[in-house]
Predict the structure.
Amino acid sequence: MESMTQIYNDDVKRYKDSCAGLNKVDYPRIDNFVESDPAKIKWAANLKKYISSFKYLEYTDDYLTINLYRPFNKQWVCYSRDLNERVYQMPHVFPNTMITNRVISLAGVGGRAGFSVLMMNTLSCLDTIEKGQCFPLYLYEKTEIQQTGTTDLFANINNQPSTDGFTRKDAISDDGLAHFKAAYPTESFSKEDMFYYIYGLLHSPEYRERYADNLTKELPRIPCVKTAKDFWSYSKAGRDLAELHINYETMACYPVTLKETGEIAFGDESYYVTKMKFSKIKQDGKSVKDKTTVVYNAFFTIQDIPLEAYDYIVNGKPALEWVMERQAVTTDKKSGIVNDANLWATETMNNDKYPLELFMRVITVSLETMKIVNALPKLDID
């Protein structure tokens, strides 16, 4: 990012010099002026707009933060309105690295992977959940200081001033809360309880099946279930699912059988992963995948993986298969950038076993998720 920013700023200077003394209509075309080398810089629309106005950019390590790039896969990201092509409304959800929040991300309309939902507490990519739309627990705005010196807060009485220069606002409206209060007049619950109710409901297989056609064309509509008992069941389930899906890195490792298939290497090399793959078995004369066994690397094979762990589907495929895809070493063809999951393991997590343990932890997450989903109450609504 430092190198790209410097290349860009050098081009700004060259472009500005070439435009000196010219009328704006005579400025060189940006596409004809800059050299498009994907190994050095990505000339997306915003950068072209910035250079045309002679805008210089600055890179700082303060921009670096962690995001959820794909389900159960975190990466470092340079988070900047100038250096990201699109940030959408994320600055109101995660305005800086110090502010905490929770977000229900669900598949956008028309996605090919089908309806899916996942809760997260970090920034996410647009396609963490395909063309995802994010619905946060809170929204944040910069705290404005009025001329009188008093803080200008939102009108909503639930807003809370923040010590780091932002004001927090409940993303669920008062009208939304009143709607649910009217459905369960004898109950006392909060917007947070509603937030987890929504997450629980969106995991209901019956809800997804009944409204499958609608979910391909529009955002989900959230009904009130008939009884307060069921409301609380969905809310508790949603809260439990949220803890599993957000804290997946701290869940217990499922007790698989780890078979040593080669002489253990020195240091962290034994756990270095290039690409996990399923073992193969013969079935009806054909070679088919054996999903109970995954070849981790030349030293280890993971055995006794419960097949029901693959029942937890998120963003179009089992959560475990997302781990297998992303805990790998890949090279981007255009830029030449190497994405090495082992570096995340050793440099960020300080744990060379991280890819292996992540696989084992997501087995636990998958099994526990399906246990909760299968115990959800019948969808009883008017």
Q: What stands out?
A: The radius of gyration is 25 Å. The longest helix spans residues 354-374. The chain has twelve helices and 19 strands.
